Amino acid sequence: MKYKQLEAIMRRVASQCPDYHYFIEQHALAAAGIAGENEVFYFLQELAMPHQILRNFCLIDFAAHKHEMDFLIIFSSFILCLEVKNIAGQLNFDVEASQLLRTRADGVIERFPNPVAQLTRHIRFLSSLFPHIPIVGAVVIANRRAIIGSRRNTHIPIFHADYLHSFIESSLKQYTKPVLQINTFYEQLLARQAPVIKSFSFTLADLKKGVFCEKCSSKMHFVQDRFICSNCHHQDKFAHFQALADFRLLVDSKITNQKFRTLCEISSRYAAKRLLKYLPIIKQGRTTYYEIPEQIVTIAPHSPN
């Protein structure tokens, strides 16, 4: 959710926003995190033994604290919890000082929160929930240019993504007794997943108005039954779906005809009604809302004609 929101912010929030540079930094960090997770997922897809994968999985503990885990891999004999870091440079881990020190190529040293401490917290929580299931944890370094240096006072394995298969094979040899049904337990975990909460919230007034071209990002104009780019002349009947998706991520999951016209800069309420015909209608008193599905960009053919 956070990464999708940040992508929407890059499209919709003006650079004059006081927090815009913060959002740029957060977007870059989130993009690096997603790239690192994709690298790890590439290796996980090659697993031949029965398993289930939960990615970006969140549970709430008894004190209402969130546990956001990069990967949970369920095997019949144990659960593997992975914390992924996509950081280049020489990485030195110090659990006692609760820090990860990264030495860049130019010699500059930077401090990051120690992923070992975060992973240990997740393992402790999972073990309290499922005391009969072995919980195994590891920190996976996804950046191929990283050099793993010192690992002071840590019992948690730390390795590069290409060692993941070997680590899993070793763990399967250590934990051989089946203790759970993989698919049943997977469904049980999904049922316990914490509800998604928006990381950032905006009003319609905060957003850039208009529909933007997927080809060149320029503003499009609505002409009869389609949107036409003023720059590259790309035509699209469903370009407003991305605007609706952005509105859902940043403002609300439902929208009125009037707010839709403001968002997409459409003058005719009747034209707006035709464009919104794919969306479910919600009546609240005298007000008609259109519910924006989570997968709004995929609910109709994306045709340029």
Protein described:
It is a single chain. A hairpin with a 6-residue loop joins strand 10 and strand 11. The radius of gyration is 23 Å and the shape is globular. The protein has a 5-stranded mixed beta sheet with strand order 1-2-3-7-9, sandwiched between helices. The chain is built from 8 helices and 16 strands. Helix content is 32%, strand content 27%. The protein has helices at 2-12, 20-44, 115-129, 164-174, 182-192, 240-250, 257-264, 269-275; strands spanning 52-60, 66-74, 79-85, 89-94, 99-103, 109-113, 135-141, 146-152, 158-160, 211-212, 219-223, 226-229, 235-236, 254-255, 281-284, 287-291. Helix 1 packs across helix 2 and helix 1 (2-12) packs across helix 6. The chain has 2 domains: 2-192, no CATH class; 204-298, Arc Repressor Mutant, subunit A (Orthogonal Bundle), CATH 1.10.10. The chain has 305 residues and is α+β, with helices and mostly antiparallel strands.
Could you give a quick summary of the protein structure above?
With 305 residues, the protein is of the alpha+beta class.
Q: Order of strands side by side in the largest beta sheet? A: 1-2-3-7-9
The CA-CA distance between the termini, in Å, is 31 Å
On the 0 to 100 scale, the average pLDDT is: 92
Tell me the radius of gyration. 23 Å
Number of domains: 2
Oligomer: single chain
Strand content: 25-35%
| Number of helices in the DSSP assignment | 8
- Can you tell me the overall shape? globular
Flag low-confidence runs.
none
Give the class from helix and strand content and strand pairing.
alpha+beta
Helix percent reads 25-40%
Q: How many extended strands?
A: 16
Taken in chain order, the helices and strands follow as HHEEEEEEHEEEHHEEEEHEHHEE
**Major beta sheet summary:** 5 strands, mixed
Organism: Lysinibacillus louembei
Pfam families: NERD
Protein name: Nuclease-related domain-containing protein
InterPro entries: NERD (IPR011528)
